[in-house]
Automatic annotation (TrEMBL):
InterPro entries: AAA+_ATPase (IPR003593), ABC_transporter-like_ATP-bd (IPR003439), ABC_transporter-like_CS (IPR017871), P-loop_NTPase (IPR027417). Gene3D superfamilies: P-loop containing nucleotide triphosphate hydrolases. The lineage of its organism: Bacteria, Bacillati, Bacillota, Bacilli, Bacillales. It holds the Pfam family ABC_tran. This is ABC transporter ATP-binding protein. It comes from Cohnella zeiphila. One of its GO terms (molecular function) is ATP binding. Keywords: ATP-binding, Nucleotide-binding, Transport.
């Protein structure tokens, strides 16, 4: 459905993307994961045919996206930063897009607006970042495209709306829609994607199944015990990687199965077991060694 081959773009100043190669299969939800400035938006702009590559090419539904625009009506796109037409309200903007897309998408549009719970009659200049993001999501989904390309779709959405968004993606996926979705948040990608590419400093460092990425991920767990003696006993258990100890608390890091940890925690009367908020750094550090190479 989508193939990105050797895509290279060097910006003045040396940044850009280098030899980016991956393919998205029909019907899958494909994540595009990387820290800020890694090259996600640059790659996506090339995919959508808005930038001319220095080298390489993008083939989407059989079209070279830089040279041919005929793929556009069959694709939905949510840019990282949406440029709206000033002076319109949400509905006006969506109707304008629908005319360009050349399909009657009014019924689907109304359903999406209801799901995302916002007043689309609000003038765009008065909309919050989250509301604008919702208008952009409706625009990307409403014409039932075969592929939906989303650049950081949940930025600006509150947790409840992030959940609604995930439901929408899964419903569309069940109908056979293909997705390419960029994010810098692994948990977000984890809930929806089948596979993901990881990009860092303009280069793809891994393309893996989500299950594989999950099992590679190292998690930090904070445990609290009834008494410091229990914490001591737990910290001496076989096969645990203890990161920190303080009184009746112990932090460990785990990758893969949790069963050993849970067994040891139970036998030492653990009171609570909390996954520590994982920073992006923690996730990415697992994928790179110091030279930035994939392990
Ligand atoms: N038009 C441009 N001219 C010069 N440099 C650019 C241009 N567009 C992007 N860059 C640089 O290229 C790098 C990749 O940017 P890009 O926006 O693709 O990253 P990103 O992965 O989408 O990041 P974020 O998560 O912050 O949106 C950055 O260092 C950025 O400053």
């Amino acid at each position: 459905m989508l193939s990105v081959e050797g895509l290279t773009k060097r910006f003045p100043g040396g940044k850009g993307i280098e030899d980016v190669t991956f393919a998205v299969r029909r019907g899958e939800v494909f994540g595009f994961l990387g820290p800020n400035g890694a090259g996600k938006s640059t790659t996506i702009r090339h995919i959508m045919g808005f930038m001319k590559p220095d080298r390489g090419k993008v083939t989407l539904l059989g079209f070279d996206t830089w040279k041919e625009g005929a793929f556009r009506k069959r694709v939905g796109y949510l840019p990282g930063e949406i440029a709206f037409l000033e002076g319109m309200n949400g509905i006006g903007f969506l109707e304008f897009l629908a005319r360009m897309q050349g399909v009657d998408s009014s019924a689907k549009r109304a359903r999406l607006i209801e799901r995302l719970q916002f007043d689309a009659r609000t003038p765009i200049r008065k909309m919050s970042k989250g509301m604008k993001q919702k208008v952009g999501i409706v625009a990307a989904f409403m014409h039932d495209p075969e592929l939906i390309v989303l650049d950081e779709p949940t930025s600006g959405l509150d947790p409840l709306m992030q959940r609604t968004f995930i439901e929408l993606v899964l419903e569309e996926k069940a109908r056979g829609t293909t997705f390419l979705m960029s994010s810098h948040s692994f948990p977000e990608i984890e809930r929806t994607c089948d596979r993901a590419a990881i990009i860092k400093d303009g280069r793809i460092v891994a393309v893996r199944d989500i299950g594989e990425l999950q099992s590679m991920q190292r998690k930090r767990i904070d445990l609290t015990f009834e008494r410091p003696e229990d914490a001591d006993r737990f910290a001496r258990s076989e096969g645990l990687q203890v990161e920190a100890r303080d009184g009746n608390r112990v932090s460990v890091s785990v990758s893969g199965s949790m069963s050993e940890l849970i067994r040891a925690a139970a036998s030492c009367s653990a009171l609570s077991l909390d996954p520590a908020a994982q920073s992006l750094e923690d996730v990415f550090m697992h994928f790179y060694d110091r030279k930035g190479e994939i392990r």
